From TrEMBL:
Assigned protein family: Belongs to the carbon-nitrogen hydrolase superfamily. NIT1/NIT2 family.
Organism: Streptomyces prasinus
Gene3D superfamilies: Carbon-nitrogen hydrolase
Pfam family name, one: CN_hydrolase
Protein name in UniProt: Carbon-nitrogen family hydrolase
Taxon lineage: Bacteria, Bacillati, Actinomycetota, Actinomycetes, Kitasatosporales
PROSITE patterns: CN_HYDROLASE (PS50263), UPF0012 (PS01227)
């Protein structure tokens, strides 16, 4: 398989509309690859908290429309990163009518919505996303022709139990869009490799570049194989990171070094 991670620069000088057009053109340029991955909240920026409500959109909103057309034109599977989603009235969402979510969209090469994932772990402690957005409560996997994706978003990377849940649901390629700050770049690289090693899965982690809301972004998108080897890593600026990988290596690694079979379940329950 060939994947392209689009490490988009999110700077304040560019409008959401112009970034959407620019990113759609970048997606079209990836015709011929199997999978394209975009970062977290690349329309607004993950730290532009005051823009979340203003730019919030329904699932099939302007970002979906632009990305569906681009995915169709390029004939690629597209993990379109995440958008600030405004839940529909009467949908019965966990946050209630009109709640905001940090929602990732996965589109098929025909431009259909294959899956939507509402970020489970919201970042910010008592501020920002943690208070402005509601939390999702569903794990999401997406079967592709040669691998099954497990999707997670940015801060989720710190919670290994979420990834175990994805593996139990059949995930072999873990896709993590992010808006990770430069200040904690060492954690980003370490955690991406840790999730790959402990789950014997590919990790495709796509961050943003640039600076918005005073927060310099780490860039350094990374692709790690099931043995923990770094197949490709971006620099700090806007970049397209294209990588070839063999999905069959997941089963081979799990067979040759069957650590997942030695799991002892139930250790997360309170002990007597
Ligand atoms: O966990 C971190 O250090 C960064 C998380 C983050 O920036 C986010 O989830 O938006």
């Amino acid at each position: 398989m060939r994947a392209s991670l689009l490490q988009v620069a999110v700077n304040e000088g560019e409008s959401v509309e112009s970034r959407r057009r620019r990113v759609a053109a970048l997606v079209r340029e990836q015709a011929g690859v199997d999978l394209v991955v975009l970062p977290e909240l690349w329309t607004t920026g993950a730290f532009a908290h005051e823009d979340f409500a203003r730019e919030a959109e329904p699932l099939h909103g302007p970002t979906f429309e632009a990305m569906a057309e681009a995915a169709r034109d390029a004939g690629v599977w597209l993990h379109a990163g995440s958008v600030p989603e405004r839940a529909a009235v009467g949908e019965g969402s966990t946050g209630g009518d009109g709640a905001l979510y940090n929602t990732s969209l996965v589109l098929s090469p025909t431009g259909d919505l294959a899956a939507a994932y509402r970020k489970i772990h919201r970042f910010g402690f008592d501020r920002g996303e943690a208070v402005l957005m509601s939390a999702g409560d569903e794990l999401v996997t997406v079967p592709l022709p040669h691998t099954t994706l497990g999707v997670a978003t940015c801060y989720d990377l710190r919670f290994p139990e979420l990834f175990r849940g994805l593996v139990d649901a059949g995930a072999e390629t873990l896709v993590v869009p992010a808006g990770w700050p430069e200040r904690r770049r060492a954690h980003w690289t370490l955690l991406a490799r840790a999730r790959a090693v402990e789950n014997q899965a590919y990790v495709l982690a796509c961050g943003t570049a640039g600076t918005h809301a005073g927060v310099p972004q780490a860039g350094h998108s990374i692709v790690v194989d099931p043995w923990g080897e770094v197949l490709a890593e971006a620099g700090p600026g806007e970049q397209v990171l294209t990588v070839d990988f063999d999905p069959a290596l997941v089963a081979k690694t799990r067979e040759q070094f069957p650590a997942l079979k030695d799991r002892v379940l139930g250790l997360d329950r309170p002990h007597r």
